[in-house]
Write a structure and sequence with these properties.
Blueprint: H1 2-17, E1 36-48, E2 58-63, E3 72-75, E4 79-86, E5 94-97, E6 121-127, E7 132-138, H2 142-145, E8 151-157, E9 166-175, H3 191-195, E10 203-206, E11 213-216, E12 221-228, E13 235-240, E14 242-249, E15 252-259, E16 261-264, E17 269-276, E18 280-285, E19 292-299, E20 328-336, E21 344-347, E22 350-353, H4 354-361, E23 365-367, E24 370-371, E25 377-381, E26 386-393, E27 399-403, E28 409-412, E29 426-429, E30 434-440, E31 445-451, H5 454-458, E32 462-467
Parallel strand pairs: 1-4, 3-8, 9-12, 11-19, 20-26, 25-32
Antiparallel strand pairs: 1-2, 4-6, 5-7, 7-8, 9-10, 12-17, 13-16, 13-18, 14-15, 14-17, 18-19, 20-23, 21-22, 23-24, 26-30, 27-29, 27-31, 28-30, 31-32
Bound molecules: CU-O-CU linkage and copper (II) ion.
Length: 468
């Protein structure tokens, strides 16, 4: 693979040398004839069993009646077309989380498009020019729509993907169910959740099941694609019975690293190559101090022999940090929430005390003294510039900070923070952490930067960056 890559690079170099390069953008290895993959997604109300076969079905909001929504799987360079029909009785939109998308197709209601009204449809169409593990989810009142089940996995395959015997996507969620196994209604939108850690659940599922079993070839090499679809729960997953190597975070390659556990904040993903070393292997969620089974593998002779070679993973694809000499620094001072130091903030043109913001407007979080709203441009950025979002988490809570339309490098002044070797699209900030999220602003449009603890986002923890 490496030699193939090099050959391709040399080929492009050779082309530039003879002046043909102008015709072929070197950074766009998209095949000339892009294949369009059409999908239909219908957002609607349906009953689905997520709490075990002995329990009643849960009334949910789902895409195509399925939990998670249908797997959308394409190859890099193809075009995703999704006709989304809204059969809910509220407006909705779909965001393609982690895709460095065309701004119009980003799915942020009232920012990049008008919401899709009940009974209406909207067709998203965009190329997918980078490979990895992504997901799609509702981006209209997402604190409610995602909590009810409106999300699904999106996988982009690549010629450079490591060879494995199995490729398994695990979409993990933490639901808050009542004692009848229904989505807990009276706490949806609770001010307490919005001002504290967000909506934490009481029922863990993996692909809508508890502890699903996966039959695999004995000794197989398995690519796990882990996606945290929870509103607010930071998951910690532990692997037993496998040799696990982390190869990508948030759909971006990282230097391969042997791991036993991985922490995943809401919206984050991790791709882990697991070599089975025992008959049975387990994944457990351990963040609360109690082990919760989160899937297991059963070596199954009938599936035949594992054939994927156990060779080292090619990590030549990790892009280097850009030149920081001309960096545009943007300070993001995060404040608010319970036990915080925010006393007042600007909202809708006026400076209001926090008590009034909370009680009248349900707004609790601010960046640089401003409550997030889509009518307020937080920063204007020149297209092509190198930007550092210098973020200070001056609150008592962790926050999963997500940037739309771009991936960023993470630099932190906290030596205890384990920095990713590649890029990410969502970074979990600990209380009082300062981090610089560095990105090349090469994608024009209006892009959100917000907390993916969805209650925090709804309560003002977000900003619009304008790039042009
Ligand atoms: Cu996955 Cu703005 O979100
Ligand atoms: Cu947050």
């Amino acid at each position: 693979m490496i030699s193939k890559m090099l050959q391709r690079r040399n080929f492009i170099k050779a082309l530039s040398a003879c002046g043909i390069a102008g015709l072929i953008p070197a950074t766009m290895p998209t095949p000339a004839l892009s294949i369009t993959r059409p999908y239909q997604l219908t957002a609607g109300k349906s009953a689905f069993n997520i709490s075990g076969s002995k329990q009643a079905d849960t009334d949910m909001w789902l895409y195509n009646g399925s939990c998670p929504g249908p797997l959308l799987r394409l190859r890099r360079g193809e075009i995703l077309r999704a006709e989304v029909t809204n059969q809910l009785d509220v407006p909705t939109t779909v965001h393609w989380h982690g895709i460095r998308n065309i701004n119009d197709m980003d799915g942020v209601a009232d920012l990049t498009q008008a919401p899709i009204e009940p009974g209406e449809s909207f067709t998203y169409e965009f190329p997918v020019n980078h490979s990895g593990t992504f997901w799609y989810h509702a981006h209209t009142m997402s604190w409610q729509q995602v909590a009810r089940g409106l999300y699904g996995p999106l996988i982009i395959d690549d010629d450079d993907d490591p060879v494995t015997d199995h490729d398994i996507c695990l979409m993990i969620d933490d639901w808050r169910l009542d004692d009848k196994g229904q989505i807990h209604q009276s706490s949806l939108g609770s001010l307490h959740d919005w001002s504290h850690a967000g909506r934490l659940g009481n029922w863990l599922t993996v692909n809508a099941q508890s502890d699903p079993a996966f039959s695999v070839k004995p000794g197989a090499r398995v690519r796990l694609r882990l996606i945290n679809a929870a509103n607010a729960r930071v998951l910690t997953l532990r692997f037993d019975g496998v040799e696990a190597q982390l190869v990508a975070l948030d759909g971006a390659p990282c230097r391969a690293e042997t791991i036993n556990t991985i922490k995943l904040a809401p919206a984050q993903r991790a791709d882990v190559i697991c070599d089975l070393v025992t008959e049975k292997a387990f994944i457990r969620e351990i963040s609360t101090g109690t082990d919760h089974p989160a899937g297991h593998f059963v070596a199954t002779q009938e599936l035949g022999k594992a054939t994927a070679p156990k060779n080292a993973i090619n990590t030549a694809l990790v892009p280097p940090l850009p030149d920081l000499r001309q960096v545009r620094r943007i300070t993001v001072h995060m404040q608010g929430g319970a036990m915080g130091n925010l006393t007042e903030a600007r909202y809708d043109g006026a400076v209001l005390p926090l008590r009034e913001l909370a009680q009248k407007h349900k707004k609790l979080w601010a960046f640089n003294g401003q409550i997030g709203d889509y009518n307020n441009i937080f920063a204007e950025i020149d297209l092509g510039s190198v930007v550092s979002l210098d973020v200070i988490n001056d609150t008592a809570w962790p926050h999963a900070m997500h940037l739309h339309g771009h991936h960023f490098w993470v630099m932190s002044d906290d030596p205890t923070v384990d920095l990713p070797s590649g890029q990410r699209d969502t970074w979990l900030m600990q209380p009082q952490e300062r981090a610089s999220l560095v990105f090349v602003a090469d994608n024009p449009g209006l892009w959100l930067f917000h907390c993916h603890m969805l209650e925090h986002a709804a309560a003002g923890m977000g900003a619009v960056l304008s790039i042009d």
